[in-house]
Specification:
Length: about 950
Amino acid sequence: MISDSNQVGTRVADANAFPSSPWIPPTQGFNDRTNLAQYPANYVSAYDLRHIDSARRSANEYRLRPASSPVVTELAIQNANLADQWAELAEKINSTLFRLGSANAKLDSATRDYDDVGAKLRQYGLTPTIGLMLSHKKGQFADWQVDGSAGYVNDELQRSREKQLANEMIAHDGSNVVRQTSEILALSGYGSTHSAYATLAPQVQSLLRERSDWLQSLTQGYNDYRQKLGELDSASAAFGKVTDNYRKLINRHVTWIRSSDPLRIADFRKFRSGLSALFDSRRSEALGYSLTQKWNSSPSSGTGLLGTILTILLIRILAKSWLIGKRKRSRETTARTRKCIASLLTPLVSIAFPSILYLIARWLHTGYVSESTLHLASGLYAASFVALIVEVPRQLLRTSGFVERHLKMDLPRRQRASVYLFVIGTGLVLSAYLITLAERIDHGTWSGSVARLGFIASLLLVAWTAHLALKPSGGFLEPLVEKFGGSVLYRIRFLFYFLGVGFPVAMISLSSLGYQFTAIEIIKRSGTMFVAILVGATLWSAIKILASGAWHSLTGTRDESRLDEYDETQPARVSGALAEHSLELKHQIAFLSQCGLVLAAIVCAGWLWIDIFPNVRMGNPVVWTVQDTVTQSFLDASGQKVSRTQVEATPITALRLVLAAAALFVAFQLAKLLPGIFDALVLQRVNFDEAMEHLSLVIGRCLLFGAGCFIACRLVGLRWETIQWLAVGLTIGLGFAMQDIVRNLLGGLIVLFEKPARLGDLITVGNITGRVAAQRFRTTVLCDEEGREVIIPNKSFVSQDIVNWMGAGRLKAIPIEVAVTRDERPTDVCRMLQQLLIEQPELLLSPAPQATLVCVSQQSQRIELRAWVEEDQDASSYRDSLMKTVLNYLTEKNLLAPNQPRQASLKEPCDRSAISDLHSRKKWSA
């Protein structure tokens, strides 16, 4: 951490350079400065230290001014406070300028170093010399700390805004000297008629004018201060991005390089002196001083850390009380709900203490830092990671934990294993902290003795724990493997035992041979994968329960169920085609979701291990390279905005091609399932006609296919700039070749949105008259008088005259259905019934009555009769009388079947349309 004296430089003040009278600072802020040699070349403009010292002397002279009157004394003291505030602000600006120069210098150095290392790797490959250099750079990352983090910048911005707002709230700011002088003297009892008014007024006016100058300088200074804080924040963010890229580059190449010499006898001899250096009291004193300085530099961040820790502890207490069943509400819920809650709360309780250690380490690693705080942060990072690895299985096996209460299996030594994990885990967390600290102190002098020997001892303890847990006969996890692993995994439990015990033994061998860094990196990734598997297995029960509940809530297939405190809730089953269709759709969506989760797990595992095994990248060759033009804007040294265009090469690998194919496959499958999803989630709640349903499905499928194609094109490197001319040519060619199709599609939009005819309406299009049976995106289906289906292109609705015999509410339809025997042909029966309807005087002859065959069974055939009357007529009474007439006529002809169908309501469309609608919906669902 840079001290204030170094930030500002050598403070030399020439006492003879300024008069004894109060000096008023310039109002132009940064415009009146002198070059200071101690600042970087890009930041030579800073407040002159002599001006700052003069402001301090002015503040003292204000305070020592002879007290001619209390009102003058009070104004002088206020001006003195403003002068001190200006001097403090000027010093902060100078300090920020030095921070900014240092941050930019580090950014430039890191960028040049990163580019140089990358060029050497591309030219020479990973030689032993370059490997040693990368190992050295790896150890330097902890020391590359930019002075000026986001917390410091945010705190300073808030303070500057508060102080500037307080200055703006000053009532008598010198903006109107004469008026404000009269007000101040009047408030103090010196009216214009007072004898001392003539003496005090000039003094008050002079102080107000000086106050105005101070306030203007402070306003300009705060604006400049906020500007430089923003530049510092930008430099810190850029430096963090460069260091992250540098770290990734090093991790990719440095893993399998020997980081130290093999284990020797001399390492055992140095163990005692290494322990003495580790517990040296001077380190504790340096750490205590650094912590005090860090708290004083940013008490708000420390207070926020304490508040966060208390919040995490409170959440853990509440979650644990729910988890072990101490809450009354948790005992009153069903077993299914309790299992879901336990599945969610177990990982939450597990990460509480590791999160606290991680937050403390992050707080130590940011803002004000020193060598001791960086070492302490590194140790706490390692301790939090080990605590997470131990705490997750411990919470699963603890008393009243997830395994005991919700897996319904008996582990004979579960409680003993939980206590063992607590004791051993505490020792491992403490050893992780001490080992990491030993690797850092004295610039890694004791990493080969104390750190490595402690590392080996800890891994031996891990191997013994794996032996107790995975022992083929008698291990405390053997019943768990037998129940959930199946017969195959139970038979190969010896393999799990050898892997569990052999992994720490292999890491001990690597560390003994000098590959300490390699062993640590493998342990980090293995521990992360182990925790992810345990957390995923714990959350799987909650995911299934919540997904099932969400599906039943969306589809409305859940009925009332019995709540049992001990047995799981069994929802009442819904029978019928709807339940069967919903169940099939649910299984298809669940299968796609499981495939997505498996793919995500494979991608995450590959991303986790790709740096450890860099040769695996050879299995992902670059197929082609895409050149992208990127424009970046930045501010130069003079503050002008400059734009720079550069070309970036994006490699298109085989993996990206596979992901593009997967995106198209997922889009295709979702589009295939869209009708069923639409039927289950929307049509059960909203009453759409067939036309709107068809339009919604077409638009939804187009959007899904479009999104899949867009993602695939981005993955394979296809840009609009590349295919725009091809798209224009195809558009022109298809425009000429597919004119009729485009006209039909546009006509379909008009039919679907304007609704010139609805389902069941009798219309005339050209020379064709019939009832509307279906409305599609490109065609409309009419059913004529003879029962034939006529397919009409939708462009006819735009180019031809349309007559809607049921438009404007002029007519009312009277639908009747009768069942007749199969003694006569359907055509003859329809012709007879149609002639009977024509002979009825109450019915209209235009449109003509219709008789249509609906369906045929083994004993009967159903005929639909449809006739029309005027709107003002009583259609209900007409249908009753017409129904009697038709039944009597069929009885006389001996054609009436024993069982007659139920008649549809007059407000509903005809059954033929309803059957067509149902048939279409089933077809889309299929």
